[in-house]
């Protein structure tokens, strides 16, 4: 079956769908972008992550929402999804095509200005290079944790991230060097105090000794830290389990919450994701 036969009849969704189909044929997960290089807005059931990240983040494109949702996690190379009526409607409105580098086994070093490009030529092995509006994308074979501002004008886009597709670029793709990995390793996610509600006290206390609560928090920290995939979903489920077990009697303190948030942030979760996951867990438990 050719790409042309996959494109639905009726008003043509344009070149973006053709580009998406071409990328998907090479097993590159794609999604449509609206103006400003922003993914199409989360659907109402998932607005502000109200679903708690419950779609299966291990399988890109598995979100069952009626429109592209969850940004990078909605990226897919499933032709049936890409050409579905909901996605075709999005392609007709799209201003561009994005892809999930991590889902394609790639890492993009996003260089935003001439100084960053000069640094890359001096520091990194040459690889496939794509010219962008402001700078260049250097694309390597291999995946790693994504991170912004690892140095002036340099972002890393790989797992749990998306990059705008511009062109195939030039040059031969090289393996991801340790130099790039070290940029994130040397810049751990900042752990800052986060304001989030604690559950109201008043339930029956199950903590006959402080050890029970301490063990529960320690196990939760370990579970988050050990996550290698589906980090966001793991954080939400862990928060939910902690609150369900320890959150109804008032023994759970701000210090305990900050420990859990700190563990999540060391895995790359943002302040907003931590707060959203915590608040969604409270809501689901009726707290």
Label this structure with key terms.
287 residues, alpha+beta, six-stranded mixed beta sheet, four-stranded antiparallel beta sheet, 37% helix
Describe the protein in words.
The protein has 10 helices and 10 strands. It is of the alpha+beta class. Helix 7 (210-226) packs parallel to helix 9 (254-266) and helix 8 (231-246) packs across helix 10. It is globular, with a radius of gyration of 21 Å. It starts with a helix and ends with a helix.
Topology:
Blueprint: H1 3-6, H2 15-25, E1 30-34, E2 38-39, H3 79-82, H4 85-93, E3 96-99, E4 106-111, H5 114-123, E5 128-131, E6 136-141, E7 147-151, E8 154-157, E9 163-164, E10 174-175, H6 178-185, H7 210-226, H8 231-246, H9 254-266, H10 271-284
Parallel strand pairs: 6-10
Antiparallel strand pairs: 1-2, 1-3, 3-9, 4-6, 4-8, 5-6, 7-8
Helix pairs in contact: 7-8, 7-9, 8-10
Helix count, DSSP H or I runs of 4 or more residues: 10
Average pLDDT over all residues:
81
Q: List segments where confidence is low: pLDDT < 50 over at least 5 consecutive residues.
A: 53-62, 188-193
Provide the structure class.
alpha+beta
Rg of Cα set: 21 Å
Q: Element order, helices and strands?
A: HHEEHHEEHEEEEEEHHHHH
**Count of DSSP E strands?**
10
End-to-end separation in angstroms reads 52 Å
Beta content comes to 5-15%
- Helical fraction equals 25-40%
Shape: globular
Which sheet architecture does the biggest sheet show?
6 strands, mixed
Task: Give the gist of this structure.
It is built from 10 helices and 10 strands. By secondary structure, the protein is of the alpha+beta class.
């Amino acid at each position: 079956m050719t790409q042309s036969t996959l494109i639905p009849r009726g008003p043509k969704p344009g070149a973006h769908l053709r580009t998406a189909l071409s990328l998907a044929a090479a097993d590159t997960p794609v999604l449509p972008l609206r103006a400003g290089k922003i993914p199409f807005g989360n659907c109402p059931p998932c607005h502000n992550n109200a679903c708690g990240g419950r779609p299966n983040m291990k399988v890109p494109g598995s979100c069952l929402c009626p429109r592209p949702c969850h940004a990078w996690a909605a990226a897919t190379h499933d032709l049936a999804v890409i050409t579905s009526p909901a996605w075709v409607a999005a392609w007709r409105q799209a201003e561009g095509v994005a892809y999930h580098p991590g889902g394609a086994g790639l890492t993009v070093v996003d260089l935003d200005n001439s100084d960053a490009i000069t640094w890359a030529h001096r520091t990194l092995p040459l690889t496939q290079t794509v010219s962008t509006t402001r700078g260049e994308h250097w694309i390597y074979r291999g995946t790693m944790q994504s991170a912004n501002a690892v140095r002036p004008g340099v972002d890393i886009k790989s797992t749990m991230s998306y990059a705008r597709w511009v062109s195939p670029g030039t040059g031969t793709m090289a393996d991801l060097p340790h130099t790039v990995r070290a940029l994130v390793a040397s810049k751990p996610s900042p752990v800052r105090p986060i304001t989030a509600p604690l559950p109201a006290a008043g339930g029956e206390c199950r903590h006959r000794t402080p050890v029970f609560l301490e063990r529960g928090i320690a196990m939760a920290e370990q579970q988050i830290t050990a996550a290698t995939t589906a980090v966001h979903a793991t954080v939400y489920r862990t928060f939910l389990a902690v609150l369900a077990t320890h959150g109804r009697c008032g023994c759970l303190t701000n210090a305990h919450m900050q420990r859990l948030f700190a563990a999540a942030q060391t895995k790359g979760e943002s302040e907003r994701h931590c707060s959203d996951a915590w608040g969604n867990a409270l809501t689901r438990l009726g707290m």
